[in-house]
Amino acid sequence: MQTSYRWLKELVRFDLEPRALAARLTAAGTAVQSIEPQATLDRHFTVAEVVSRETHPSADRLTVCGVRTGAGVVTVVCGAPNVRAGQKVVHVAPGGRLPGGDAVTEVEICGVRSSGMLCSETELGLFGDAERIIELPPESQVGEPAAAFYGDTILAFELTPNRPDCLSAFGLAREIGAITGGRFHLPPLNRGPEGAPMADAVDVRLDDPAGCPRYSVALIEGVRVGPSPFWLRQRIQASGMRPINNLVDVTNFVMMETGQPLHAFDFDRLRRPQIVVRASRARETFTTLDGKTHVLPDGVVLITDGEATVALGGVMGGLDSEVGPDTTKVLLESAYFDPRRTRRTRKALGIDSEAALRFEKGTDPNMVPYALDRAAHLLAEIAGGQVRAGVKDAYPTPIVPKRLRLRPRRVHQVLGVEISPADVTGYLQSLALHVTLGEEGLHVRVPTFRPDLEREIDLIEEVARLYGYERIPVHERGGGRLFAMPDHDPALEAGVHRRLASVGYSEAVTNSMGIAADYAQFAPSVQPVKIANPISEELACLRTTLLADLARTAEHNFNHRNLDWKMYTMGTVFHPPAGDAAPAETLHLGLAHAGLSSPRHWQAPPKATDWYDLKGAILDLFAQLRLPAPVFSPAALPGLAPDRSFTIEAAGTRTGSAGLLGPDAARHWDIKEPLWLAELNLDLLRPLRHPEPVYSPLPRFPAVYRDLALVVADALEADALTRTIQEVGGDLLTDVALFDLYRGKPLPEGTKSLAYSLEFRSGSRSLLAEEVDRITRDIVAALARQHGASLRT
C-alpha cells in the first residue's frame, strides 16, 4: 500500500514532516516501508505553454512547437499526438537530466533544431502514457518550477494482515489523527442535479446473501470516456497505479481513498436491466477482463444480469460487460463480499487484484453507500454524465458494530502502567471508537471498518500503541523477567553487524514465519514447525533456513530494479522438536550478493559478482571475528546450483553452506538474475572464537620465498594442495598463496597448473637457503605422493 503525503494532509491536519510522520506511524504499529519523492525534478523542469504547433517539414509524425518558457519562446520538436496550442506542459531545458539519468541537450531532429523537450509522465518516472505529454492545469503559471506539481512525497506501507482499514487513505488518515491529535474528516460530496428515479431503471436481487451480504448500484447516464483531469491522474499515480481513463480512474481513486472496491459495468451491454447475485454451480465457465476463461468451482459468488454472468463477486469483472471508449451508461457497483469466499475464489482461480486483496481481508460493509455516492457524483462531474436519483441497496441483514467491554484495571494488569480511564477513553475515541462509561468499565462500540478488534485484549493493544510502547517500563515478576535474557555473550553478533556494515552490506530484517514451500527449496527433508493459529497462509510455519528469506527479499529488490547490492540477515532458525519438547532454536547469519561487485567506473569495465566475492567476504568475516579459517568443500546442496555449491567447515565442524541459487529455486521465486547465497550457524561458530585478539610483533629477521608451479589433475581442489603444503612446511612456513592458474598447451589434457608462493621465516634467527630448500623438497615429495602433483618445467 502506498499513498501521497499531500493527500493525507488534506484528510487530517498535522504538522509532521514525512520522515517524522513515518517514525511516529511505525512506532505505533503502522510500518512505513519507504519514503520517496514522487519525481526528482531540478530547476531545468518548468511550466511552459505551447503557443504554436506545425507539422514537421520532413517527418509527418513529428510537430514543431513554439513553446513559451520563463526565458522566452523556444522551438521544440515533439512526437506526442496530444500536443496543441494553448496547452500548459512540462518543459525541460537543455542541461537538465531526466529522473532515469538521460541528459537533455539541444539537438537537431530531421533538420530542425530542438531546444529541450516536452515531457510525458513516464519520462518523469511516473506510471502513465509514454506517448502523450503531460497536460498541466490551465491556471498553471509559465516559468513556475514543475516540482510544484510533482514535489509530493510517496509513503509506502508494510501493513499487517489484520489491518484492512489501512489499505486506504481514509484508514491511514485516521491513524495519523490518532497519533497526532488531528481530526480526520470525510471529503464533502459534491452532488449535482440528478436524473429520473433509479428504481425505474434496474432491479437488484440477492440469491446468495451469505456470499454477498450487501449489494448496491447506481446508474450514471450520458458519460463521455476520456482522459482523467490532472489531479485525478496524480492521485492514481501516487497510489502506485496506472491511469487508464476517467471511468476506470474514478473507481480506482475511490477504492484507494475509502478502501471500498467498486466496479463499473457498461449498462447497455447487460442483457437485462437487473442484477442477480447467486452462487456458482459446478463446472460453470466465465471469461474475466484479462481474456482468460475459467472453470468455476462450487460456491463462487457470481454477479449476473439474470441470464449471463458479468463478474466474479469481489475478484474480477467480465469481458462482455466491461466499459469501453463507447460507453455512455455506467452501472456502478459497490458491495460487501464474504472475505472467506473471496479468498477461496481467488486462490482457486489464481487471480490477483487490488479489489480481491481488500475484500478477502475484510472491507467495511457500511462504507458501501458513501463510496458509491462519492464515485457516482465524481463520474458525473468528470465524465459529464448525470446520476439517476437514489440507489438500489440490497442489505437484508445489516452488519452492526461489535460491542466490547474494557476494564481499566485490566489495562493496568496487562501493561504494568497506570493509565487513567479518561486517557484510555481518549485513545479509543481518537480511533473513531464510541466509548461510554458503565458500571463494569468502559463499553466500546467498534465501527465495522475495524474487523480486527474482537476482544478486550485487542482494545488494550490499541491503548498500548497509542500510549507508546517506549513509555511502558520493563517490570520483573516472581517468575522472572517479561523478556528472555540472552544466554550468551552477544559480542559475536555485534561484531558481525559492525564488520558487514563497514564493508557495504545492508541489513534485511525478515520474518521468522513463512510458508513451507519456500523453506523446502533449501531444506526439503526438514519438516517445518507449524503454527497452530496462523494469521495467514503466508505465515503458517517457523523458518528452517535464512536462505529462503534472502531469496524472497532478493525477488522484491529485483522486481523493483534494484540489481546491485550486498545484504545480510541475522535471526533464529527453528528445528523440529523431538517428541513433546519445544522446537530447538539456533542463531544463523545469511549473506546474499547480486549484480556488480563494484560501482561502475569509466576506468574499468564492470565486473559481475561471482563466487570469489562471496568467498572473500566469508574469509574476511572469519578473520575479523577471530574464527578459525573456514574450509570450503564442493557439495550438491538443495536449492543451490550443483556445480557451484559448497559446505563450510571450521575446526572440523560443518558450520554453513554457500553457493549460487539453483535453477529450480530461481523459478520458484521468479528470479532471473544470478544470486549468491551463504548461511552460517553462529551458535556453532561462537565456541570457536578466540576471546581476545592475538598480536604478533613485527618480524626481526628476513623472509625467504620460494615459488612452486605444480601440474595436477584438473578435478583436484587447490585447497587440498594448500593444506598439504601447510602440514609439511611446519612452523617455519608462515604463508602460502595461490597466485596463478593455467590450463592449455603444452599441459596434457585433463590437467592444470597451480602456482604457489611460499614464505618462510623464523622469529629467532635468519634462515639458511639449504634448510628452506630441504623443506621445499619435502613439500614437493608429499604433494607427489598424496596428490600426484609434479613440478611444471
Give a topology summary:
Blueprint: E1 2-4, H1 5-11, H2 18-27, E2 31-37, E3 45-55, E4 63-69, E5 72-78, E6 88-92, E7 106-109, E8 112-115, E9 117-118, H3 147-150, E10 153-158, H4 169-180, E11 203-206, E12 214-221, H5 230-238, H6 246-258, E13 262-266, E14 274-279, E15 285-287, E16 293-295, E17 301-304, E18 309-312, E19 316-317, E20 329-336, H7 339-349, H8 354-361, H9 368-383, E21 386-387, E22 392-394, E23 402-406, H10 408-415, H11 421-430, E24 434-438, E25 441-446, H12 456-467, E26 476-477, E27 480-481, H13 491-502, E28 506-507, E29 513-514, H14 516-520, E30 541-542, H15 547-559, E31 565-575, E32 584-594, H16 611-624, E33 631-634, E34 640-650, E35 653-661, H17 663-668, E36 675-681, H18 682-685, E37 704-713, H19 718-729, E38 733-742, E39 751-760, H20 769-787, E40 790-791
Parallel strand pairs: 11-14, 28-31
Antiparallel strand pairs: 1-10, 2-10, 3-4, 3-6, 4-5, 6-9, 7-8, 12-20, 12-21, 12-22, 13-20, 14-17, 15-16, 17-18, 18-19, 23-25, 24-25, 26-27, 29-30, 31-32, 32-36, 33-34, 34-35, 35-36, 37-39, 37-40, 38-39
